[in-house]
Amino acid sequence: MGSLDKDSHIFDKTSFSDISKNIYSxxxxxxxxxNQMINxxxxxxxxxxxxTFVVPLLKELLETDIKNSDIQVKLATLIQKLIxxxxxxxxxxxxxxxxxxxxxxxxIKLEMGESISxxxxxxxxxxxxxxxxxxxxxxxEMRKLDE
Length: 147
What we know:
There is one protein chain. With 147 residues, the chain is mainly alpha-helical. The chain has one domain (9-146). It has helices at 16-44, 48-91, 99-146, and strands spanning 9-11, 14-15. α1 runs antiparallel to α2, α1 (16-44) runs parallel beside α3 (99-146) and α2 runs antiparallel to α3 (99-146). It is elongated, with a radius of gyration of 22 Å.
């Protein structure tokens, strides 16, 4: 398998270090976007009915943002386990994995597949929320103009 470290390519030409940077930058970007959306929508709330219209969307935006971050951290943790398992096997001078190590690597592979699927679903949900956000923002602005 070869020695794995933070700069080894995990898939395609992406290393663990690249993934860590991506987690950090996407987390910052999502956080800024979420804050902007909250500011935009809260500025449009003028009546209690406006609030009941907007608050569920804000709640869902925050929940998907948190879930997305959790999934990315889980993926990073799984990759770290993969690196540690292969490094341990090599440091023991054993280039062959024990049954226990093979089972752990297989579990990591399965968990990574599940996490990636979950991340893809969550990203789709965030896109839907973005569309919903735009619709609600337009609707609130139109209400404001009608007043």
